[in-house]
Design a protein that fits this description.
mainly alpha; Cytochrome Bc1 Complex, Chain D, domain 2; binds heme C
Length: about 350
């Protein structure tokens, strides 16, 4: 039954747009960078694992070089785990899923430059061992083609694969765990709408099996519409914290300085807490929303560097309501007096 659904998914137009977008994302953000940083709202205990993520990630300017995967053995885990017969229906809205995927960074870690799609293979190394971004195109043999929408949603929000194996938290499922049921199914539908690319990714080699992850709060059926809650969700999945929150020496985020500014590569990410002196305290919600979509500050100056890239590649696509929601959330968090330039 798993093989019934192999045809019938070529949507060249959407794909080429998505591809251009993803390519742009990857080339410039190394979209997977900041990402390994966990959701700011999660309790510290929940977020211990991702600190093992490669420390170099947040400073990467491009996606890692794809390793050659041509001769790799097929990954055994997914096929072994594919025990049940899923109903292969995708009920989500692919366009809504693409919007969410783009805001998270376009799944850029999975982008394979040689093959021109989300065919995986990029290598991530750290004290934890080696993992390879998986092929998340709907290829039946080597990608997600054999997975149901529920199984894909599970990978996305808990890192749990069918049959009880667990993704390494280099894949930021902890941040994505706040996605609503609907959004997770939308992303699954988006991935399912892509062209299948055959690419067998090498097996991971980990020093220990990742711990199962259960989100602290069960995700809602639908995304919140109340602005502060929606803004918190978006700031979490977009992983603003990866750049705007400084790290402790062990690489974990310093929660006392959440979003209070940090050094990113050769630039400094501003304090975006509502502190009057060092943060966004004097900005209106509308001014913050405008900056998010255009990069223009209230005084007419433009943001530069890493933030300008983020806006160009993803935040300019924010709907007005979502930009306002992010602003409302940023105004609601504790003001922290901290000057990252000092
Ligand atoms: C890749 C790193 C990165 C990510 C991710 C990122 N930012 Fe930034 N951000 C920066 C940098 C660097 C600056 C400073 C740019 C400058 O000085 O021109 C900045 C500036 C800003 C500013 C302007 C503040 C000021 O005083 O001028 C706001 C507001 C902001 N970011 C909000 C956000 C939000 C909200 C998110 C997530 C939705 C986010 N940023 C994600 C790096 C990042």
């Amino acid at each position: 039954m798993r093989f019934l659904n192999t045809q019938n998914r070529s949507k060249p137009v959407r794909w080429s747009i998505g591809l251009a977008l993803l390519a742009a994302l990857v080339l410039a953000i190394g979209a997977c960078g900041s990402p390994a940083t966990p959701a700011p709202a999660e309790p510290a205990a929940e977020v211990a694992a991702p600190t093992e993520a490669p420390k170099s990630e947040p400073t990467a300017t491009t996606a890692p070089e794809p390793e050659s995967t041509a001769t790799a053995e097929p990954e055994p885990e997914p096929t072994a785990a594919a025990a049940e017969e899923p109903a292969m229906t995708f009920t989500g809205d692919p366009d809504a899923g693409q919007y969410i995927a783009t805001l998270t960074g376009g799944c850029g870690c999975h982008f394979n430059r040689e093959l021109g799609g989300l065919a995986g293979g990029n290598k991530f190394e750290g004290p934890f061992g080696v993992v390879y971004a998986r092929n998340i195109t709907p290829d039946m043999e080597t990608g997600l083609g054999g997975y149901s929408q529920e199984e894909i949603a599970s990978f996305l929000r808990t890192g749990a694969g069918p049959g009880g194996w667990q993704l390494h938290p280099v894949m930021p499922y902890m941040a994505f765990s706040v996605l609503s049921d609907k959004e997770a199914l939308d992303v699954a539908a988006y991935l399912h709408s892509l062209d299948a690319i055959a690419n067998a990714v090498p097996d991971r080699e980990l020093t220990s099996d990742p711990a199962p992850f259960t989100p602290a709060v069960a995700p809602p059926a639908e995304a919140p519409t109340e602005p502060v809650a929606r803004g918190e969700e978006l700031v979490t999945i977009a992983r603003c914290s990866g750049c705007h929150t400084p790290n402790n020496e062990d690489g974990s985020p310093n929660m006392d300085l959440m979003l209070a500014g940090a050094t990113v590569r050769d630039s400094i990410a501003a304090n975006i807490t509502p502190d009057d002196e060092t943060g966004l305290g004097k900005w209106t919600v509308e001014e913050i929303a405008t900056l998010m979509r255009t990069g223009t500050r209230p005084d007419g100056s433009e943001v530069e560097g890493a933030m300008a890239q983020q806006i160009e590649r993803r935040f300019n696509l924010l709907t007005e309501d979502d930009a306002l929601a992010i602003a409302a959330y940023l105004k609601s968090i504790p003001a922290v007096n901290h000057d990252p330039f000092e």
